[in-house]
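Title: Comparing notes on inverse folding

I've been comparing how different people in this forum approach sequence design from structure. To keep things fair, I'm posting one structure and asking everyone to reply with a full sequence. Here's the target:
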């Protein structure tokens, strides 16, 4: 039986665009070893780094790719999609009322019951206790104002915020391709 370090499932490949930048930082663009091998054989990627782990087939022996770069450039989207995750990322995974980082939800600054819409300009990250305390009130009625004004972020803003939250697993072969900005964390 293989130990965990030798298990191919523990060998994801970092996926870079043709310009050698990660397709995304948060979540980090990773492929399973199977998807990476498939892309290699379909001639869609170049292997930049490899794991020590070797896989075997009847007529093939190959190191598992650790970092791959797409051969064709994928143009990044211009405007981020409105999702709960992207709201949290814009707000740096912190309640916009008290700064808490746990039990996060999102809050309509102008409550839906008062005609507020679910848009970038009206939704902020809130911890469950603050969200419950604010309830259906307007900010001036409860004295709860977001720390930063809700806005539609740019892709660059989300990417920069994502760099402040490196994932738990980073293989040493990825270091030359990732730039984590731990100094900017608040």
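Reply #1:
Here's my take.
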């Amino acid at each position: 039986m293989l130990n965990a370090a030798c298990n191919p499932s523990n060998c994801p490949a970092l996926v870079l665009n043709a310009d050698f930048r990660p397709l995304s930082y948060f979540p980090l663009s990773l492929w399973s070893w199977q998807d990476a091998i498939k892309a290699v054989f379909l001639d869609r990627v170049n292997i930049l780094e490899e794991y020590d782990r070797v896989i075997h087939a009847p007529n093939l022996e190959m190191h598992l790719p650790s970092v791959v770069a797409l051969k064709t450039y994928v143009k990044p989207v211009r405007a981020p999609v409105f999702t709960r995750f992207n709201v949290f990322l814009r707000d740096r995974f912190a309640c916009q009322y008290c700064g808490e980082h746990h039990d996060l939800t999102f809050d309509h600054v102008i409550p839906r019951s008062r005609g507020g819409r679910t848009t970038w300009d009206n939704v902020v990250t809130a911890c469950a206790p603050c969200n419950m305390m604010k309830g259906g009130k307007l900010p001036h009625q409860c004295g709860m104002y977001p720390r930063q004004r809700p806005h539609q972020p740019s892709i660059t803003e989300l990417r920069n915020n994502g760099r402040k939250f490196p994932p738990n697993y980073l293989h040493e072969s990825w270091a030359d391709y990732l730039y984590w900005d731990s100094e900017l964390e608040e």
